[in-house]
Specification:
2 domains, binds zinc ion, Homing Intron 3 (I-Ppo) Encoded Endonuclease, Chain A, two-stranded antiparallel sheet, alpha+beta
Length: 175
């Protein structure tokens, strides 16, 4: 796997090599009204790759870092379902666990443990969204339960990571 852990700046700091390669980077991007498609090299996992400063970095991670600074140990994940997309608005930094969940939700063959779970009405992707929204504040378990059509216990369970620990397994993603 080509996890780009070798970017040379502390989390949140601009990457010093980023600026000089901007023109070359954007020349490989085809913007649409939604996704910004990477047209350069794509690795076997379907992610765009960009070679800069003698290193290879995934294109979406590079794009994210241009806007937000280096994500450090965090992975850069897609809100859209398009691995080639480098639109910063479609990207967010998350943990490897969230990345695994993301991978699982996009690969239905692996969606087994979740469907045997008492809160199976929630998909892995939904669990991630619920955690995100709850973490941001302004919405409680009752409102979330109503919105997603599940019990508050299910929401609390999803938030507590108890029911969805299986998504930590098989984290072979690429970010
Ligand atoms: Zn996108």
């Amino acid at each position: 796997m080509t996890r780009s852990k070798h970017i040379g700046a502390p989390a949140g700091k601009p990457m010093d090599f980023a600026i000089v390669s901007l023109g070359r980077f954007w020349s490989k991007v085809q913007k649409t009204e939604t996704c910004w498609e990477w047209t350069g090299f794509v690795n076997r996992n379907g992610y765009g790759c960009f070679r800069v400063g003698g290193r290879s970095i995934t294109a979406h991670r590079y794009s994210f870092a241009l806007v937000n600074g280096d994500p450090g140990k965090l992975w850069v994940l897609h809100r859209c379902d398009n691995r080639k997309c480098v639109n910063p608005e479609h990207l967010f930094a998350g943990t490897q666990i969230e990345n695994a969940a993301d991978m699982v939700s996009k690969d239905r063959q692996r969606f087994v443990a979740g469907s045997q779970n008492p809160i199976a009405k929630l998909t892995e992707q939904t669990v991630i969204l619920i955690r995100e929204r709850y973490a941001k504040g302004g919405i409680g378990t009752r409102a979330l339960a109503k919105e997603y059509g599940v019990s508050r216990a299910a929401i609390r369970s999803a938030l507590s990571h108890r029911s969805w620990n299986h998504i930590e397994e098989g984290a072979n993603g690429n970010a």
